[in-house]
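Following up on my earlier thread - several people asked me to post the actual chain instead of describing it. Fair enough. Here it is, all 482 residues.
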Amino acid sequence: MASNQDGNISEKSGRVEIQQGLPLRFLEDPKTALEGLVNPKERERSPEDRERSRLIASTLKAYREAFKTLLSGQYAELRDYAPTYLKEPCNTTAISCTNGIIVRYDLGKGGETKLRVAVTNSNLTELAPIFSDFVVHFPPNSEPYDPGPHVPKLELAKVNFVSGASQPIASFSPIILAPLTSLDLGALPPPPKRPCLLSLTNEIQLVMEGSVVPADATTPSAVDRSHDFLARGKMKLAVGWEAIEMYAPFDPNYWKPEYAALWAERDLLAAVVRKNLEDTQFAAIDPNVAARKKFKNLLDQLQALLEGPEEPVHQFLKAHPELLCPVHTKCWSKRRLGDRVTDFVFRKPANDYLLVELESPLRELFRKDGQQREELTHAVNQILDWRTYIEDNLATVQETLELTGISSNPSSTIVIGRSSALSEENRRKLVALQNQNPKLQILTYDDLIQTSKAWAENLFGSLDTFEGNVEVYFAPSTSRNS
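Reply from S.P.:
Thanks for posting it. Predicted structure:
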């Protein structure tokens, strides 16, 4: 029995092709039944089997539609919590066995989805391994069981990023063994709850424990900055399905389309609770995860903006001044000092102030002959003009401009150009220029990113821990010499 995306349910014959690691293929053939599932002598299905198929098909169809409605309406903000197989177009195949029901979800092609149901005299012990790519097994008893040679395997290896050499660490097979003798069907919750025995997706979560040790840890004078950590990441099994579910033997009291909306809502909310509980448990290990993510995201955005025009960069820094002065207690943009206007003025603790002049990231600081460009000279002169005005009008600046406690010679920073345009000789000249003005700092935008990153990492831990689906949680710093 099959249902298409339009919801039409019809009875068709054919055969299922099962290849490990690939989605199921259903080939319609009026002369054959589901090959390997239904004995040819059983092609003439009884009215009871037809009714069973109809109830399973209509209930799963209603379940899928209920999820779609929830994620596009009442619970749209929870879409990210829903598993892939319930928010992306998937083909659904249900096999009703003698002692249970197998439901498998495979990604559909081109947005089209099919729902197919078959009834067979085979059992979970025979069919669960085949339909789950040998991940799920229902041994007939609790005695030692051989899952066979086709079970999937995961291998962990350590990689030397300098040489590229890889060395295996461990391997294991992610399989589920559920002996039939351990299934207490009498413990199932009563209708309208789902009679589901097992539900899993093709994503697994790996948690690894380790230590971060500085490269200079053996230097006698080095401060011990070692951290223990937990790394949490997700990976997909090399299977053809998105999800597999196993249900108790068919009971018409459970399989009713009117129950599907309740199933869908409970499953979605349960997924939210699991995710939040999991995140809370890991956040308790390391409360700085959110701060690291924020700074990592901000620095990535700024890096991307550097390839474009000047104004978006300035607007971004205006929206996120913490990248210019992470420890400021107050910030002013476009503060007038005489005939000049600052880009930023920051008040830091103890009434220490910082004046910031922003130039374009596209500006070059030096000519090919090594001489200082006009843009850099202009920026330095801006700083000197601000300082001169403050020195000549200190009381006015402190009172009228509300820059309480500012000194006549505050610190200042110029941000201009890119590091890639500077030679070693250019860098030496910048150092000499800053030595002439001890409270002046000249940074490229790349320097700014590295400085902000170093500040954040000193407080919150490494920002280079959010690659792909991996998150790292640092335990509090501990000295290994104590």
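The radius of gyration is 32 Å. That should answer part of your original question.
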